[in-house]
Amino acid sequence: MQTFLPFADFAASAAVLDDRRLGKQRVETLQILRALHLEGYGWRRHPAVTMWHGHTPALVAYGIAMVDAWVARGYADTTRALIAEFVHPDDPPDQQLLARQDRLPPWLGDEAVHRSHRSALLRKEPASYRPHFGDDPDDLDYHWPEPPAPPALPGDRVAWVVRAPLEAGRLAVPVAPGELPWTPLDARSGRITKRLRQAARLVDEIAEGDGVVVPDGDELDLAVVRGPHRVEDHRHVRPVRRVGRLARAALDFPAALQDPQVVFALHDEPAVAAALAAAGPDGATTSSPASGVG
Fold this sequence. Notes:
By secondary structure, the chain is α+β, with helices and mostly antiparallel strands. It contains 10 helices and 8 strands. It folds into 2 domains: 10-133, no CATH class; 157-279, no CATH class. It has helices at 10-16, 19-37, 47-50, 56-72, 80-84, 95-100, 111-124, 126-133, 194-205, 270-279; strands at 157-162, 166-167, 170-174, 211-216, 219-225, 230-232, 235-247, 263-267. Strands 1, 2, 3, 4, 5, 6, 7 and 8 form an 8-stranded mixed β-sheet that branches. Helix 1 (10-16) packs parallel to helix 4 (56-72) and helix 2 (19-37) packs antiparallel against helix 4 (56-72). InterPro entries: Pyr-dimer_DNA_glycosylase.
């Protein structure tokens, strides 16, 4: 995992990358953004991730520069919108704007970082990179900068996201092998898998009265949990009452929904909190123009 920066300038770095690595940088940018912001995604302690702590807009600008260079070479792209969603889906900042606002990471421009990246590229593909990098050595280790900021902490949970069809007044998630008969995690022996932790959220952590968000393309179904867990047709089931819909774009941080988990917490989303509050604690819908509930 790496965001190659042979130079301090994002566009100049993109311009010299070979096609294979340029294409991969789009995907790696997206992976690092998700590692920075999505609970349980993995890679959080990798130095290629921690070096971007506190500088998501700059990482987005880097990723967009890679996408622009990739498309300019005639290739198709499906990552731009996903990358941009981590700051502003319609108007992500570029490096020049961030420089004027003094919002670039402090290690950008550190020649030890950039020289180590040039050296790594020379090792990987000397024929492609020697004409660009002259007499730079090809035997330097990566120089990893210190994290410029501590990792971001989640705010208040406003709802749970559940990736399951909302139908017939219930949410139903298929039971995975080994989950039944259900036993709480703290009473289990053996390895606790990620899938088991997600099931435990649906079974044990989500309480009656909690709000639930169900992604449906560019829209979100909102519901309130109305009863305890049960098992039906080899599925974990929670009864719910649907209370409205919101556009995904109404979220302050819609990229949170890129989390691949089946069940996870959603934090600090005023539009969701307002819509669920308008529904009342028992899920009885009251009309609210601001919330989109009705």
